Amino acid sequence: MYHRTVRRAWLRAAAALLVCCAPLLSCAGREAANEVAVWTYDSFNSEWGPGPEAARIFTEQTGIALRWVNHGDAGELLSRLLIEGEEAGADIILGLDQNLADRALASGFFEAYTPVGAERIFPELVLDPSFRLIPFDYSYFAIVYDSELVPVPPASLEDLTKAEFRGRLILMDPRTSSPGLGFLAWTQEIYGEAWPDYWRRLRPSILTVAEGWGSGYGLFTSGEAPLVLSYTTSPGYHLEYEGTERFQAAIFSQGHPLQIEAAGLLKTAKNRANAEAFLNFMLGDDFQNLIPLSNWMYPVIPAELPESFRINPKSEKALRPRPPTEGDLDRWAALFQG
Fold first, then answer.
1. CATH architecture of the domain with range 34-138+259-310
2. Dmax over Cα atoms in the chain, in whole Å?
3. What does DSSP say about strands 247-250 and 134-146: parallel, antiparallel, or unpaired?
4. Regarding beta strands 35-40 and 65-70, do their DSSP bridges make them parallel or antiparallel, or are they unpaired?
5. Do 179 and 232 form a contact (C-beta atoms < 8 A)?
6. In angstroms, how far is CA 172 from the centroid of its own chain?
7. Mean pLDDT, the chain, as a whole number?
8. What CA–CA distance (Å, rounded) separates 77 from 327?
9. For residues 58 and 294, is the Cβ–Cβ distance under 8 A?
């Protein structure tokens, strides 16, 4: 009798507790369902990047909270996803590029989703017809230089090996940085199987190999070296915010690799509807118009560009090198360890 009485009392107490907590549980459920978690690279969600303003506009329009999670540079972003897999806890990965696309898609983690506005994407930028990866911006890799310190800029990859540039070039690690990976692919495109020989000749020119673009470009702007791997769109930043044309992008007759950045919906997304809403927003005018003056890339849809983009040079030859393999990365690392 005692046990039955205690059990009935416990059940009544539990029922009362559930009734009292029901509003809280309901609220918590709504909070969990009213967000979207997006993994990205550090500079995208920095105070000067498009992340904070994109989140503000998206939440204002939809009522959905946008939770950014930063993971270094794009290479680190993909590595983290491959390690954590289905336990990643993200709805969307934003910031992978075409050099990382094959590894990303081979993982099987991405879900096909054709967002509203996909038909507006410039056709040459589409990475995957099923839109497991959805382009959101693009630009071209280039060597940016300080024209006050380098009056005659390099005109080719080969020029970078000249003695006059010894210790004056900042690059990024291709194992962790998408620009670093893009530069390695660039050298492979131009030199073919002889690319390791090129890197041996280039090594004296390299001051340092930064982990990511943000740290590398920060060294450049602080005056550590007058040459840095960046983008043809970087000079526009300095004109827009510093009012100077001092920093220029060197144009090589061999051509410049195109970089296409993309976002993808994960199959394990817990907030699927909210994630789809964000991807639709990503291809809308509000998001795309943020790209030029905050991420310093080009929108993937027709859009009016800011006046400061007039300083950004155009390459007459857009390159689409094959992505370096894991073996290529190992060979590259061995060149710097020997």
1. 3-Layer(aba) Sandwich (3.40)
2. 97
3. antiparallel
4. parallel
5. no
6. 14
7. 90
8. 20
9. no
DSSP string, 241-309: HH----EEEEPPTT-EEEEEEEEEEETT-SSHHHHHHHHHHHTSHHHHTTHHHHT-SEESS--PPPGGG
Q: Tokens representing 281?
A: 């927003």
- One fold for 34-138+259-310 and 139-258+312-337: yes
**What is the identity of the amino acid at 231?**
Y
HSE (side-chain half, CA atoms, 13 Å) at 311: 20
Domain limits of the chain?
A: 34-138+259-310, 139-258+312-337
Q: Tens of pLDDT along 250-296?
A: 999 999 999 999 999 999 999 999 999 999 999 999 999 999 999 99
User: Under DSSP, is residue 45 helix (H, G, I), strand (E, B) or coil?
Assistant: helix
Token pair belonging to 295:
């991420």
pLDDT for residue 13 is more than 80: no
Measured CA to CA, the distance from residue 183 to residue 124 in angstroms comes to: 21
pTM score, two decimals? 0.86
The CATH number, out of the four listed (3.30.870.10, 3.40.190.10, 3.20.20.70, 3.20.20.60), of the domain defined by the range 139-258+312-337: 3.40.190.10
